[in-house]
Amino acid sequence: MNLTLRIWRQPDASADGEMHTYEVADISPDMSFLEMLDTLNETLIERGEEPVAFDHDCREGICGACGMVINGQAHGPERTTTCQLHMRHFTDGDTIDIEPWRAAAFPVVRDLVVDRSAFDRVIGAGGYITAPTGAAPEAHSTAVPKPVADAAFTHAECIGCGACVAACPNGSAMLFTSAKVNHLNVLPQGAPERESRVLGMVEQMDAEGFGGCTLAGECATACPKGIPMPSIAAMNREYLRAAAKR
User: Fold this and answer.
1) How far apart are CA 181 and CA 236, in angstroms?
2) Is residue 25 helix, strand or coil?
3) What confidence tens digit (pLDDT) does each residue in 70-93 have?
4) Ordered DSSP codes for 113-163
5) 22, 5 in Cβ contact below 8 A?
6) What is the pTM of this model?
7) What CA–CA distance (Å, rounded) separates 238 from 246?
């Protein structure tokens, strides 16, 4: 396939950015989207130009490191991570627009790379379970009913890629935060800190400058791991209960 790529180039957060146009040829439909960008970068390096910077790590749809807006959609036209999007979903001669996540809380580091450390600070505000030091307890020492375990696993699937924020018209992080809150709050191990957890994480989310949630639903549509919208309602109930007690 021969493609035209319109890619956002920006040297850093303080500089202005703009779209640059590149042509790539002989792209195999079996390539992943990131392999296609690797091919472009090899050409740019051979020409003595700066390669396009983009985030990636495992390239297996697990780590959540990759992320970009492709033709206006977070991660592109398929409900998967960018690294698992293949070029067979495009057509010979297509023009593809590629941009970084767009959110006030995700400043551009360079080109398609954004700083997602706001997520880390939200996790640091309560996304953990405090436990005494010592040997790990036996796996079955605390009984967990299967429906509870299933709910925890559903929320634990969140990989923190940020697609929910990029897709939301308000730049809200409610789906991410609710997944991390509910993952622990539904488990008996997380019950002792459920109130401080939801208060701390929601308040840190607001402090980071993420937008408010208006239940547009774009977050759940873009989520590559299928975190459901009711997760947000569950967190809101937890937050109101904890705030009333406080």
Assistant:
1) 10
2) coil
3) 999 999 999 999 999 999 999 999
4) EE--HHHHHHHHTT-S----SSSPPPTTSS---HHHHHHHHHHHT-----H
5) yes
6) 0.93
7) 12
Tokens 């950015």 -> residue = 17
Whether 219 contacts 164, CB under 8 Å? yes
CA distance 39 to 34: 9
Predicted confidence band at 133 (pLDDT cuts at 50, 70, 90)?
low
Q: Which helix (H) or strand (E) holds 198?
A: helix 194-207
Residues with Cβ within 8 Å of 46's Cβ and at least 6 positions away in sequence, in order, are: none
Per-residue model confidence (pLDDT) at position 64: 95
Query: Residues 6 or more apart from 236 whose CB is under 8 A from it?
Result: none
Residue 37's closest CA among 26, 52, 47?
Answer: 52
Residue where the block lists tokens 């559903």? 154
DSSP secondary structure letters along 98-117: EE----TTS-EEETTEE--H
Q: Alpha-carbon Rg of the chain, whole angstroms?
A: 20
Coil, strand or helix: which one is 96? strand
The region of weakest confidence among 9-18, 35-44, 134-143, 152-161 is 134-143
- Residue 64 tokens read as 């959540």
How many residues would you count in the chain? 246
The two structure tokens encoding residue 29: 């439909």
In whole angstroms, give the CA distance from residue 13 to residue 88: 33
Closest-CA residue to 153 (of 173, 179, 127): 179
| Spatial distance between the Cα atoms of 210 and 138, rounded to a whole number of angstroms | 39
